[in-house]
Design a protein that fits this description.
- The protein has 312 residues and is α/β, with parallel strands linked by helices.
- The protein contains 8 helices and 12 strands.
- It has one domain: HUPs (Rossmann fold, 3-Layer(aba) Sandwich), CATH 3.40.50.
- The strands form 5 sheets. It has a 3-stranded parallel beta sheet with strand order 1-2-3, covered by helices on one side. Strands 4-5-8 form a 3-stranded antiparallel beta sheet.
- Helix 1 links the parallel strand 1 and strand 2.
- Helix 1 packs across helix 7, helix 1 packs across helix 8 and helix 5 crosses helix 6.
- The radius of gyration is 20 Å and the shape is elongated.
């Protein structure tokens, strides 16, 4: 576990409050092994701390949503023995909260309209500040960006360790609302986590470099920063992303226990052989009792063993 934070590090987590974690899938398709891995880590960490575990469906990007995906996600989680606290949170029902956050930032003079499209910025590694003094051309559809000033954001990830980023140098002014007026993930996730009182965000390492940007938005809104832990992404034995594999990523609802035990093993738990003959509830109880975040591999990518036989 990380030691004392050096000067300038963001102090994260809720002081003296109860643990609240969350899992936040997007309804753009079925859950796969990587989703199960991340969900299990988040669920185990919350339950091992005697905390609450929330489920949020991140369905803001309606053009990318797959019909029926939201319901399928809930069914899959139930099949694998997950139990969440409270009603399912849906981003599509929270437009007022996002609008209020944008109004607060606008009142402090931190926002500007931007007419740049993805194509306009295709050759740029970071947003170059094109519209800081006004959209170009005028009259075009505009999104909304947060003015980002140069400064280091430093936090301690509970798995990956110290992480530092100058958000301005890395990506420039942050897009908070797209030109089609859909609120960007960056703003929604910050508002949602704060509104739910989330104290620890445990998710995949693909979002590690996005975390300083979220912290920047939290600071601009005067919100408390939760603690963060980023588990490795599951990849092929040769290091290629699992999502690009020729093999199927779909989970087998007829064999949830075998897949759970593989996930527990990938999380460093080393489940005993006799759990193969136990029920789902027994396996979860064992995993919660033996959970230790320090045993999760400190890596950005974790090779999938060849023994994942349900993937064909």
């Amino acid at each position: 576990m990380p030691g004392a934070a050096p000067a300038g590090a963001v102090q994260t987590g809720a002081a003296g409050g109860g643990y609240i974690g969350r899992f936040a899938p997007s309804p753009t398709g079925d859950l796969h092994l990587g989703s199960l891995y991340t969900a299990a880590a988040s669920f185990l960490d919350a339950r091992a701390h005697g905390g609450r575990w929330l489920l949020r469906i991140e369905d803001l990007d309606r053009p990318r949503e797959v019909p029926g995906s939201s319901g399928a996600i809930l069914t899959t989680l139930e099949t694998f023995g997950f139990q969440w606290d409270g009603p399912v949170i849906r981003q599509s029902a929270r437009a007022t909260l996002y609008a209020d956050a944008l109004d607060r930032l606008h009142a402090h003079g931190l926002l500007f309209a931007c007419s740049c499209s993805r194509q306009d910025l295709a050759d740029d590694d970071r947003y170059p500040g094109t519209c800081r003094e006004g959209p170009r051309p005028t009259g075009a559809a505009t999104g909304t960006r947060l003015r980002v000033e140069r400064r280091q954001i430093h936090f301690i990830d509970h798995i990956q360790g110290h992480y530092r980023q100058d958000v301005s140098a890395a990506c420039g002014d942050l897009l908070l609302r797209r030109r089609d007026q859909i609120v960007a993930y960056l703003l929604a996730v910050v508002v949602d986590d704060a509104d739910a009182g989330v104290t620890r965000v445990l998710r995949g390492a693909d979002l590690l470099d996005n975390t300083p940007r979220q912290i920047y938005v939290q600071q601009a809104l005067g919100l408390r920063t939760p603690s963060y832990a980023h588990v490795p992404l599951i990849c092929e034995p040769d290091g290629a992303k699992l999502a690009k594999s020729r093999r199927s990523l779909r989970l087998d609802a007829d064999a949830p226990l075998a897949q759970l035990l593989l996930v527990f093993d990938l999380l460093g738990l080393e489940p005993p052989a006799d759990l193969r003959h136990a029920g789902i509830a027994t396996a979860w109880r064992w995993a919660i009792a033996h959970w230790d975040l320090r045993r999760v591999p400190k890596a950005l990518c974790l090779p999938l063993p060849h023994g994942a036989q349900w993937l064909d």
